[in-house]
Amino acid sequence: MKVCIAEKPSVAREIASVLGATTKRDGYYEGNGYAVTYTFGHLCTLFEPVDYKPYWKSWDLNNLPMLPEKFEVKVANNDGIKKQFKIVKSLFDKADVVINCGDAGQEGELIQRWVINKANYKGEVQRLWISSLTTEAIKEGFKNLKPSKNYDNLYYAGFSRSIGDWLLGINATRLYTVKHGGYKQVLSVGRVQTPTLAMLVNRFKEIENFVPQPYWELQTLYRDTLFSYEEGRFLKMEDGEILANKVKEHDFEIVSITKKKGTEYAPKLFDLTGLQVYCNTKFGFSADDTLKIAQKLYEKKAVTYPRVDTTFLPNDVYPKVKGILSKLTDYSTLTEPILNKKIKKSSRVFNDKKVTDHHAIIPTGMQTHLQYNEQQVYDIIVKRFIAVFYDDCKVSNTTVIGKAADVNFKTTGKEILFKGWRIVFEKKDTSTALSVTKESLLPSFVKGEKGPHEPSFLEKQTKAPNYYTEATLLRAMETAGKQVEDEELRDLMKENGIGRPSTRANIIETLFRRKYIKRNKKQILPTITGIQLIDTIQNELLKSAELTGTWEKQLKDIEKGEYSASAFIKGMKRMVDALVYEVRSETVQARISAVNNKPAGKPKTKAKTKSKTQSIVGSSCPKCKAGSLIKGKSAYGCSHYGKSCDFTLPFSLGGKKISEKQYIRLITKGSTVNLKGFNVKGNSQEGLLRFTDNFKLKFEPKQTVKKPTTIKAGDACPKCKSGQVLKGKTAFGCSNYKSGCDFRVGF
């Protein structure tokens, strides 16, 4: 029996229908000599620290660095996953050959290899490598199955990436959390996320600290056309004023008119980053939204595999182009002009050297009903594909030089002589698939003509750089933080980008989820916590986009067989070892607290950290954030009390006086320390104070529950007495946990 293993149930269903495996079983499809089973994401994962050594469970500086000699893989601790793994293993045990049908990329290879290895399958393994899920593509793929060993380097690269992320992510996160984390604040540090956050923080500070510099521009209006001083702006007002006064006394004369014909090429086909950038700019979709939509389009057979980093097609796709265009009947008005003649083949589109695992994202020709957002993304993918087979756009670029009193001025304009591919993007909407400026058509000037003009001498100011949007952040990640506008140069830099096209969206979403960054319309701003984290990390390598780009290059070289996986892992271990030693030696502790998880604010607002000796009076109200705390007769309260806020902190509670120092600790760290002398129902008790969700004070008795000698599920809870002990994944807990009982004993 041949056993196929796909990455998702939906993909397994498509493959099974093509192979004739039409009988549905529990966890797989069967028929025609095939069993088609599936994973759902990562069935297997790397060991957690505690799996290597029990004492590594503790977040303790003395346990760092954690550097396993050999990295192990386990089945994920989930009942559904364990059940599916048993089904897969039982099929492998009966298999004559296993066909790896995972997504045709590094992550897909890693996911399936881990399952095959963990199931201890030793037989023959073949690889299905396809770029779309159409019946034609699946049939062609099964005719051209490759030996699994052809993709060993791809697996080594994926394994190395995963180990690198484990080594740096787990060690650095524990290191900075224990050393610098405040109350309930995990400080997550990662190989890709930290340099990405650093780029956002650096840009924010650059804008915040930007001081505008004045400059002056000399311009003149002649025949309703604006001409600018040919040599550019003035940094000294007096230099420009001399010329401004001079040109007022003379007529304006046209000195030269230069027309140069040029060619504008169609926009490139999409790679994933290009598609995400376009959809964020034009539709406001997040990078993650665009990736999910593109993945759905792929699973609906409408487009090819989307997680790609090339804008080119291999030459063997060219013979299929006519068939794809013919099937795009919804776009027949655009496809007819190119189907009626020989289809153009350009090296700007077809280049085998620029294609690795997959080619650019293109339509398959399969048309289906799509939701509105899916249709928007599909439409631009199709139009980009059609446009590259149209003729080039021909333009005439005009440069006009004029003078007044020997002071030269210049203006430029563009005239479209032949639209070519631009016709594809003219339909209905006025936006194009390019970010080009509107063409300015100039009047007909004649060399030597003269006339009156209206000069102006304007003071302007330099502008701060723009905040990152998801579109510009994705481009910055692609080029490891370097500002690169030229498409050709950007292509060359992709090997040294931060992260992969398929993971960049998830990195950005992770930073949002951890509250290190926040959206302000289209802008992405760091929160105060994000800024404090980057400020706390003194090790520049952790924040270096260029170093992370170098790692990405090494991982790609592993994939090509040009670099050793063991060398990459040894390098990561050395860095982690040095990092732990460096941070443990730091004398300053930041104590970054979750209370600061809010946007950093507008420019000129600096992150404020509370000093240990501060007074509570004058500090920001923790409830409304708008008022400040003042001291009354019997309590501290918000300055907006009685108007829009009811926050108070009484001087005493339950017969116990609460010091200002303890209230400062409560506000900054979430609780007081345990204090003695609270009068509770006539008895003196020890405990601490916390805020409720509504910022009212709540007394919590000191926890004195000792771990019982034996605990088993079903016992009465030893803390609240009314609940029952439940057995979880890693600990025993109380059935009344939703009602507030926090009894918990780890295994």
Explain the overall architecture.
This protein is an alpha+beta fold and 747 residues long. It folds into 6 domains: 2-144, 3-Layer(aba) Sandwich (Rossmann fold), CATH 3.40.50; 161-209 and 466-585, Topoisomerase I, domain 2; 214-266 and 394-429 and 439-461, Topoisomerase I, domain 3, CATH 2.70.20.10; 272-389, Topoisomerase I, domain 4 (Orthogonal Bundle); 619-701, no CATH class; 715-746, no CATH class. Strands 2-3-4-1-7-8-9 form a 7-stranded mixed beta sheet, sandwiched between helices. Strands 15-12-13-14-11-10-16 form a 7-stranded antiparallel beta sheet, covered by helices on one side. Strands 19-20-21 form a 3-stranded antiparallel beta sheet, with no helix packed on it. Helix 4 (106-118) packs across helix 6, helix 6 (152-180) runs antiparallel to helix 18 and helix 14 packs across helix 16 (501-513). The protein starts with a strand and ends with a strand.
* Strand content range: 15-25%
CATH topology title of the largest domain:
Topoisomerase I, domain 2
Mean pLDDT: 88
Shape: flat
CATH class category of the largest domain: Mainly Alpha
Number of strands: 29
Q: What strand order characterises the main sheet?
A: 2-3-4-1-7-8-9
Radius of gyration computed on alpha carbons: 32 Å
Classify the oligomer. single chain
| Spans of at least 5 consecutive residues with low confidence | 429-438, 602-613
Total helical elements: 20
Largest sheet: 7 strands, mixed
